[in-house]
Amino acid sequence: MTQQVPQVPPTETALTGVRNFRDVGGLPTADGRRTAFGRLYRSGHLAHASAEDALFLGGLGLHTVFDFRNSADHKLDGYDIELAGVRNVSIPLSDPADGAEFWRLVRDGNIEQLRSILANGKGTERMLTMYRSTIVDRTAEHSRVLHALAEDSVPALMHCAAGKDRAGLSIAVSLLAVGVEREAIEADYLKSNDPHRRYKVKRSDMSETGMSAEVMELLNPLFGAEAAYLAAAFAAIDETWGTTDRYLAEGLKVSPETRERLRERLLDQG
């Protein structure tokens, strides 16, 4: 039987060992500008990048790759490939113990465990809680990212394991800092649901039972991009700081001068 090749939009590059890659250019800001192409990219991890993938990534002129995974992720998938002349910065956005528990559930959880932990909306609530806590509890990490981008780290690639949650929130925070509309941030975020972008779930039991429709339905909230997840993050900003400007200034300690440097680096100057 002929293997089906994932359909990739013609404007994108099909990477064989890296999921969810895309340029975050072309998004509109509130003042009528757009994010520049070739400045900020997002993806899943680079540990399984092919030689062809590495050649493509190496040609992007990247300054920095931000890896938001923790040690449990690294143990599971491995460390990123080395790209010549590119700085790799590790900024874990989740606790390794939580990561180990998460991957044990995904890889080894039996149907009873999955039902107990994820059924009846509990999987979705788990994700909503994670998005809120990442915004409120990881201000130091997100501050570090924004200051690095403003200083010298562009062009940059941000990734986690799937390129959806931790990388998605870091991209969202970066876009908020330069004035991109929340609706545009959401539209880019939801692209992670495209079939050719989604994380390939692997389980210890890859049989029909281990990968049954019920199992995959229970796991789906953990690997899908939902507008409600990002809305929870935005709500956490509004409830904790009142406005995006106060979140950036008080929560992330980003000065007006730093925000202007970010705009110079990430927005189209035309």
TrEMBL record:
<dbReference type="GO" id="GO:0004725">
    <property type="term" value="F:protein tyrosine phosphatase activity"/>
</dbReference>
<dbReference type="InterPro" id="IPR029021">
    <property type="entry name" value="Prot-tyrosine_phosphatase-like"/>
</dbReference>
<keyword id="KW-0378">Hydrolase</keyword>
<feature type="domain" description="Tyrosine specific protein phosphatases">
    <location>
        <begin position="137"/>
        <end position="209"/>
    </location>
</feature>
<dbReference type="InterPro" id="IPR000387">
    <property type="entry name" value="Tyr_Pase_dom"/>
</dbReference>
<dbReference type="Pfam" id="PF13350">
    <property type="entry name" value="Y_phosphatase3"/>
</dbReference>
<dbReference type="InterPro" id="IPR026893">
    <property type="entry name" value="Tyr/Ser_Pase_IphP-type"/>
</dbReference>
<protein>
    <submittedName>
        <fullName>Tyrosine-protein phosphatase</fullName>
        <ecNumber>3.1.3.48</ecNumber>
    </submittedName>
</protein>
<comment type="similarity">
    <text>Belongs to the protein-tyrosine phosphatase family.</text>
</comment>
